[in-house]
Amino acid sequence: MTSAPWLAPRIALSQQRERVLTLLSFLLPLLIWAAVSYTPFIWHPNMEITEPGSVNYFQEGMQIERETFQEEYNTQLEAGGELPQGFRANPVYLPAPHEVAIAFYTSFTTEPRRRSEQWLHESLWHSIQIIFWGFTLSSILGVPLGILSGTFAAVSRLHEPFIEFFRYLPAPAFGALAVAILGIYDGPKIAIIFIGTFFQQVLVISNTTRKLDIALLEAALTLGANRRQLLFKVVIPGVLPQLYKDQRILLGWAWTYLIVAELIGTSSGITWFITQQARYQNFDNVFAAIMMIGIIGLLSDLLLARLGKRLFPWERSSNKS
Amino acid sequence: MTKLDLPNYKDQSPEVKARFDDLKQRDVILDVKHLGKIFDSAKGPVTALEDINFQVHRREFVTVIGPSGCGKSTLIRTLAGLESATSGEVLLEGAAVSGPGPDRGMVFQGYTLFPWLTVKKNVMFGLRNQGVSAVEAESEALEWINLVGLEKFAEVYPDQLSGGMKQRVAIARALAAKPRILLMDEPFGALDAQTRSKMQAYLLEIWRHIDITILFITHDLDEAIYLADRILVLDAHPGRVSELIEVPVSRPRAPEQLLRPEFLAARQRLDELIHPPGQGDEEVGKLNMLRFANVGEEVQPQN
Q1: A217 — contact with chain B (CB < 8 Å)?
Q2: I need a surface site. Which of A99, A109, A258, B13 has the fewest CB within 10 A?
Q3: Does A225 sit within 8 Å of B129, measured CB to CB?
Q4: How far, CA to CA in Å, does A187 sit from each of A117, A129, A142, A184, A192?
Q5: How far is it, in rounded angstroms, from Cα B141 to Cα B122?
Q6: Who among A223, A241, A318 is closest to B125 (CB)?
Q7: Closest approach of chain A CAs to the CA of B50, in angstroms?
Q8: Which residue from B minimizes the CA distance to A311?
Q9: pLDDT grade, residue B238 (50/70/90)?
């Protein structure tokens, strides 16, 4: 067991190795980031000025490209003026890991600059609500339609050609229209998530439904199932586990539409927070907010995967193999 | 092929003859009349079945055999109503059938248990469709599960069962819906030889104990004889009835009978029908010639 090679084609890893590699997959990018941030000779293209010296446009805390700094330094050296002082730094848009880690906490505790503005947790909660409503509305229509068109060729023919066409239309293109119809607040944002999800959803789910082994339907027919029983007792339970997996993937897509959706009308939610913080040049907060989206996405997916194992116990052993 | 010195397969011992006389007296369960099936393909219509005629009597066990492409599966799927006939008709106890129904139970070659239902719920499926109450369906299902010897697995999902066990559940599931005839489409074809012979014994036991008529497709000559009262032999291209053989082997059956002269006589007759003399041998002969032609001779380079 211990001598098994790390790179064996299509062979499952031992649990221990799996854990090590999972940890590494997060650690490696973090290490690269830390290396770039903390070792000056890797990148650090700027100088952060601590002492402006006689350079009239230098200010304390200002960042300037190293070459420019060097020129000014040389000029002052020749002219015999006061020499500027500084240290090598990365650009403001690349904060160090520890700064982002701190921002993770402080962005929650920092009061909004204006009274009309929202706290970070309020922004996040708003984003989650937008996703929830967009995805739920899409699923209420898309899942049944997908199952029906995967089951009945006539239903599929009736709308799938149109959906094939419509899904190529980029959801954000409907932004202005959505604002005109639904106003500037949450309506158009939910609409964009809906448009971005729904058309893919119908196609993906009807495809999943079509993949159900037809022999199961035939077996049910010879056991006296009528059309309604076929649909509710065979097709739906038969596709449910895969449909659940599809929904998890589609939920991920819904998140990708969130940022665009939130820019439509009045900017809101996490996107508002990100753009606002970028305007203040608080890039540590920007990074923290982007990572929060990733963490929320990953955690909710893990949670749903856990839940799926409980919901579909008959899938347990086939998942292992 | 040298012929063994065997009795004629049509010679029946008094016991066997008496059984066939009795069989012919019984009600006709399945009556297939001039059944034909033509498929439309890209190359034009293909005749899969042509003028098929036969009857199956109550509690009879009929096996269907024939060369590959003879339309065995098409035949059984048409009887089940999963395919529609192009011509002719199928009567079940005198009534014409159209479309699938629970009066013709089916066991498929592939595993068709519902993976999301436990063994018990699978067996209850047909009963529940017919409106039997959950309590009643459950107790009936458990009886059928007992009958196929899987009482310990009633609450287990199908993917935890072996192939043989799955097919036993499939048989229980089909029988629980109380069909008038059980159609079996190479149900043991995917099983290993040992499991298959066990399953054959199980099936014969079940058939002996309950009032069920069975039509069973197979491509295994021994299986066809071992299980059957009569064997329906089909020809290929188009699928036609070539002969209906009355199996001259007494019941109950036991594996030792596979070596009895009357069994071998039936076996030889099947061989003749399915591998007509000359046809297969010639091809094998040609292959051998090719092999020997190359030995010790320079092969001429091709121009």
Answers
A1: no
A2: A109
A3: yes
A4: 20, 12, 19, 7, 9
A5: 9
A6: A223
A7: 24
A8: B116
A9: confident
Going by their DSSP bridges, the two strands B240-246 and B230-235 should be labelled as: antiparallel
Q: Are residues A238 and B159, on separate chains, in Cβ contact within 8 Å?
A: no
Q: Residue A4 has what pLDDT? A: 79
Other CB atoms within 10 Å distance of the CB of residue A110? 14
Predicted TM-score of the model (pTM): 0.83
Write out chain A residues lying below 8 Å of B80, CB-based: 218, 222
Contact with chain B for residue A222, Cβ under 8 A:
yes
Which of B82, B116, B177 is the closest to A237 by Cβ? B116
Return the residue matching tokens 């066997």: B16
Shortest Cα distance, chain A CAs vs residue B255, angstroms: 31
**What is the per-residue pLDDT across A92-115, written as a single tens digit (0 to 9) for each?**
889 999 999 999 888 888 888 777
When CB atoms are compared, the residue of A215, A233, A241 closest to B110 is A215
Measured between alpha carbons, how far is residue B131 from residues B128, B137, B171, B175, B283 in Å?
A: 5, 9, 21, 16, 57
Mean pLDDT of successive 10-residue segments in chain A (321 residues)? 77 90 94 92 89 88 90 90 89 90 87 80 91 96 96 93 91 89 91 94 96 95 94 96 95 89 86 89 90 91 92 70 35
Q: What is the pLDDT of residues B56-102, one digit of tens each?
A: 999 999 999 988 878 899 999 999 999 999 999 999 999 999 899 99
- The pLDDT of residue A276 is 87
Mutant choice from A217, A222, A239 vs B, greatest count of B C-beta within 10 A: A222
Cα of A231 to nearest chain B Cα, Å: 13
DSSP classification of residue B153 = G
Binary contact (B112, A218; C-beta < 8 A) = yes
Give the 3-state secondary structure of residue B219. coil
> Residue B289 has what pLDDT?
58
Exposed (0-12), middle (13-18) or buried (19+): which is B86, by Cβ within 10 Å? middle
**And the tokens for A15?**
């649990």
Helix (H) or strand (E) holding B33: strand B28-41
Positive or negative: CA dihedral B13, B19, B24, B25 = positive
